[in-house]
DNA sequence: CTGAAAGCGCTTACAG
DNA sequence: CTGAAAGCGCTTACAG
């Protein structure tokens, strides 16, 4: 005797002695089903360990999910931001037919208003989910609140904003990233050597991640037996001239062995070192983008601590996909690996 | 006037004035279509830039693709091999409903026959594609040939076999991996220091990748200004006793500053260093698995050069998925990143 | 509160 | 060589 078990909903309907429409109703927790019927169906679903077929679901449904992505536009680190976008496109090509529509919204990292105005347009678009690089704190907070009100899910990449709980955060553990640099220093320095930690800042917000890096860095060093002097400075430099004169001055008074740039502008220091022909100073930075890479290649930057930009985008998209389409639970915090990039391994880094 | 364009095949059929069955025939390059009809349909397909809906395709098709994976079973590096399997499972959960069936075949890395016999069972299973870690060269070659005859696609992970062309190879560029270690040595050593490169071998085959690492390592050092003495040795050690007595002897005659273990057994040297209390010798190894990690954590291993095991599995599965289901072209060689893992970044490495 | 029916964009026998 | 029809496992009006 061969009982061919019917597929999903049909089989549930058969067992419960109802129509598939009714099954569908309880499956989606819609109203209009007698309590008793509902319970019966629910228990059958449990019994069968029923898993809906996502293909059939998407094919049958007219519903299109709209996701928006808010990301810094072409700027000096432009190449970097292509990363997440590429990652999203890659994800899209793999999950493409699932009825997803993506819109990209670029803002100027130096222009608070451009961020603000992009959020306004996004709010008008009736998006289901957004991916955002929260460069401006207050504006992001406001945006997040209004998203929540409208039941728009948001995912943060790159950094987080305190007290705001996104569907998911995808980015580094910056404290630990600082420790990684500290650990490298163990090999690069000897007891007594001087270190300069530089925060070359243009943007006013998201300084927090820089602080965390610094804390991790210092914590590691204080635990280790590398007793070196760490000097941490903010340089509010607009261009190379300011950096140069600052460093000229600083280095004339301090015998620095290593400079650690806590944001993505290590290339500025590298340029300085190249201009002056200073080969004896080690340089560690953050961020995988062309300007940094050029100096990594020619040896003026020794190490770059990075996260894969493409992966961030891919995972952010996946978070929304999992939430809306696959209806699976999404991890609240997804720390990305803290990668150590050198002139010898950067080539395969994007893979 | 609102012309609602019909969806894919239907619209093609309408334009070509044929039935969708005929369209389907040319879409799949099947016989039994008049040349003229075929050309007409083909041109319409091109015109529309028609892309089949993969969801509908999989849903309608009864075809189930069967993939087999041939991978070392629990051995001393056991934890490592969970990686690819987890990766495949992860991919499966994302592409699960696409009608794929996976079978796992484990062999003993020390037992050529176990590999051989697994390939035999796999060949009987009428698989569509296989993922294999080609530990034994001749046996793999034989297996690959017979796969080709049966039109079974195969993907290599971890290493390649010369003159055999898989659908895709997913693994490291070992020459470059050796260079990465060389580059690290630049920071860890000073001119004149001695380095010992160790190949602690049990298995007879796949030595090639070790040779390539060594070449890369030496090439880098010879290009750099770190003029150190490199001694490269094979140790055919079965256990700790042999390693210990070998190292006792070697180190009594040489003042080694750094040991580079080219395969995944750095933990054996680390154990030796720990036993002897030798903290002054730096140790670099390969492979992300528990035994190595323990010594990374306690400081006896300084750096591990790794590739993400999970990612390998994921990508290998994806290669087969792309080939069979999405019908997209697959990259012949997919080099994985050469990751530098330390005690401070290993935690987030698996993410 | 419930069900019959059409449809998503394909594939697969089957009939001619 | 070609087409009509059923079906994959769901969703979505619509009717009662």
TrEMBL record, chains A, B:
Entry keyword set: DNA-binding, Transcription, Transcription regulation
GO molecular function, one term: DNA-binding transcription factor activity
InterPro entries, sorted: HTH_LacI, Lambda_DNA-bd_dom_sf, Peripla_BP_I, SBP_2_dom
Residue stretches making up the HTH lacI-type domain: 7-61
PROSITE patterns, per database record: HTH_LACI_1, HTH_LACI_2
SUPFAM superfamilies per UniProt: lambda repressor-like DNA-binding domains, Periplasmic binding protein-like I
Top-level taxon of origin: Bacteria
Identification of the protein by name: LacI family transcriptional regulator
Source organism of the structure: Sphingobacterium lactis
């Amino acid at each position: 005797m061969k009982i061919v078990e019917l597929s999903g909903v049909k089989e549930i309907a058969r067992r419960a002695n109802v129509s598939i429409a009714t099954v569908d109703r309880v499956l989606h927790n819609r109203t209009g089903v007698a309590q008793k019927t509902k319970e019966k169906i629910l228990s059958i679903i449990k019994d069968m360990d029923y898993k809906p077929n996502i293909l059939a679901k998407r094919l049958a449904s007219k519903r299109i999910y709209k996701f928006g992505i808010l990301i810094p536009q072409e700027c000096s680190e432009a190449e970097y931001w292509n990363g997440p976008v590429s990652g999203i496109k890659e994800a899209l090509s793999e999950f493409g037919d699932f009825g997803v529509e993506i819109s990209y919204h670029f803002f100027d990292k130096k222009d608070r208003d451009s961020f603000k105005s992009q959020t306004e347009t996004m709010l008008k678009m009736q998006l289901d989910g957004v991916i955002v690089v929260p460069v401006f704190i207050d504006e992001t907070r406001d945006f997040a609140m209004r998203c929540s009100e409208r039941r728009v899910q948001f995912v943060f990449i790159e950094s987080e904003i305190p007290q705001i709980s996104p569907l998911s955060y995808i980015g580094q553990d910056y404290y630990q990233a600082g420790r990684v640099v500290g650990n490298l220093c163990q090999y690069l320095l000897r007891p007594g050597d001087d270190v300069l930690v530089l925060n070359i800042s243009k943007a006013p917000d998201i300084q927090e991640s820089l602080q965390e890096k610094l804390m991790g860095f210092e914590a590691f060093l204080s635990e280790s037996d590398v007793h070196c002097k760490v000097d941490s400075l903010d340089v509010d430099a607009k261009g190379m001239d300011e950096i140069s004169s600052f460093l000229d001055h600083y280095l004339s008074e301090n015998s620095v062995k290593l400079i650690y740039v806590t944001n993505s502008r290590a290339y500025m220091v590298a340029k300085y070192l190249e201009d002056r022909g200073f080969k004896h100073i080690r340089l560690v930075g953050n961020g995988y983008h062309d300007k940094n890479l050029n100096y990594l290649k020619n040896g003026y930057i020794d190490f770059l601590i990075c996260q894969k930009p493409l992966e961030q985008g891919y995972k952010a998209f996946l978070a929304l996909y999992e939430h809306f389409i696959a209806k699976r639970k999404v991890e609240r915090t997804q720390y990305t690996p803290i990668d150590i990039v050198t002139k010898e391994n950067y080539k395969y880094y994007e893979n």
